[in-house]
Input
Amino acid sequence: MVWLSDPAVAAVPVRERGEPLVDLRTVAALRLDSRLADEEGLYAQLRLGVVDRLVTAQTLLPPELKLLIVEGYRPQALQVASFESAVAESRARSPQAGESVLRQMASMRSSPPEVAPHVAGAAVDLSLCTVDEIELDLGTAVNDTATERSHTDDPTVNATARRHRAVLAQALRGAGLVNYPSAWWHWSYGDRYWAYLTGSARALYGPILP
Output
């Protein structure tokens, strides 16, 4: 399993495409959840190429199901705070561990800011819902990393959740996105992690900084 803290991921070069962020609130084909909504609406922003692929993924789902978008773009400052908190939690559990080990442990729950797909507008946290916007059981809540049940292929989740994860994965992979294995809800396109997993020579999107 390759973590976002792996130096090989950070070593992937970026050739920035300069694509704009698209406001998902204007994309009728996709459902948007407001649980992480911010005043500026940044949670609802994604690169154009990612949005196009999500719309494609929606067409690959059974007609009674919809993608439910929870979070897209995440500002750098928020990502830094998230990762530092994850490192602190890892240090509290393993006080004798070295810094590189702590960063790897933390990266199971949060991405190092320098390679974070959300900061590039290239990652989306999402779930599945019915056409009536009733969220399906996928084993854990989105962003619940308290146990390994958040891992996409964790065998301890119930059969219904495993089936729903498989349906979600088939549609998103079919549209060209990749999953981060410790978070069933986290998918990306065009970032360094995507480039590393797909063997692409370079990433398409770098951090969007204020």
